[in-house]
Amino acid sequence: MKTFDIKSHLPTQAEAKAELLQILNSNRNEKIIKIIHGYGSHGVGGSIKNMVQKTLKTALVSNQIADYIPGEATVSLMGFDETIRKYKPLLQADSDFKKGNDGITYVIFSG
Asked: Within 13 Å, how many C-alpha atoms sit on residue 88's CB side?
């Protein structure tokens, strides 16, 4: 699974969104990728995390991606249980799977 870190170089939200869109467009042949976006330093979710999930919801509705799974959804009930079961074979080898990492999101391209 390819991993993309869009937070470590401290981008603005706009820069992170441009980077995310480029990553989505150039990795459509992958089955699944992991986006590292961070969680925010105040414990309520950062602006980049919120932007990533909003952008992925839009991409899902417009059929640009097959689905997405927030990292924290792997350990708590958030409505992604069926998606996690469906894609578990693609997820289970990842070191962050089942850790509930709020700073990542998995993006699925194929079903």
From this structure: 8
CA–CA gap between residue 67 and residue 65 (Å, rounded)? 6
Q: Write the DSSP string, 66-93.
A: SEEEEGGGGTS-SS-HHHHHHHHHHHTT
Which stretch of DSSP H or E encloses residue 20?
helix 13-26
Domains by residue range for the chain, with CATH: 11-108 (3.30.1370)
Distance CA 20, CA 50 (A): 13
- Which pTM was predicted? 0.92
Sheet holding 104-108, edge to edge: 2-5, 32-36, 104-108, 67-70
Task: Give the number of other CB atoms < 10 A from CB of residue 82.
Answer: 9
CB atoms within 10 A of CB 33: 20
Structure tokens at 78: 């958030």
pLDDT tens track for 31-79: 999 999 998 655 555 889 999 999 999 999 999 999 999 999 999 888 9
Give residue for tokens 């850790």: 99
